[in-house]
Amino acid sequence: MGPEAYPGRRLSYDGHLCTVRYKGPVDGIRGLWLGVEWDNPTKGKHDGSHGGMRYFDCLSKEPRAASFIRASRPSDPPRDFLTALGVKYGSRDAPNDSAALDAIFIGGKEVKEVGFDYDSQRLLVWPSLRIISLDGLRLNGICPEPFSAPSRRVAFEFLVNSHFSCEELDLSRNLFETWGAVTDICSALQWLRYLNLR
Asked: What span, in angstroms and rounded, lies between the C-alpha atoms of 177 and 78?
């Protein structure tokens, strides 16, 4: 089972991001349900209503931005900052994790991101990356859950002491629930000038 679900919780199912808007029973259907609003409003099936009864409201004005999901269905696991870096740019433990990301094609030819050495030493380049894009990688904080003050401090000090030279950071389409989670990451990157949160 994935992380605890509650209204306002950001989750991912099969790579599709959503926000929990309701948790409880649905009339005429057995079990406990989550009413979710999808980030992609074309993914849903309704607007937060079922059988003529409204269970929750969506921020989106799209009529099909919501779905009900069984509360017992496991969600995709969230990632902390360093894990997301490892997935995108590689790590010693998983040197080929980037193969799971979508390939980039220009003119029918596969291209690789300029400036990255795609071998087992990629972990060593993290601090030298000027632009870091962790868009859509289910990132939810600077450290793994639960977000205790000591674990946040340890992760923060690790990033500061790693002397990251990142000037531009893309954290779009992730699982952040508070601005504090974003601030934790940004404040550890002393050279950061641009933040993208589409």
From this structure: 12
